Amino acid sequence: MEFRREAGGRVMVAVDFNAASGALEAGALACSAGERRVLQIAASLAAGVPVDLREAVTGVDAGNAVLAAAAVLHAAGQRGLGARLADGEGRR
Length: 92
Prior knowledge:
single chain, mainly alpha, globular
């Protein structure tokens, strides 16, 4: 993982999702089942790492399900809608 600070002061992070996914599969990352699922979904969206979505979304809590849905919207080019959903505007 690499952290960068942009000119506006915003901190950005770069993740090698292929390496993270490999470490996850090798048992080298200590994480909960929910964290494992979220990482699998993120790695699939970011780096094309294959994931069984049916398996990955089973047991994801509501907060992480909203974040995963927002990430899918963002990846689909619906950045404004994804951001609103992640910020809680899409929740009722």
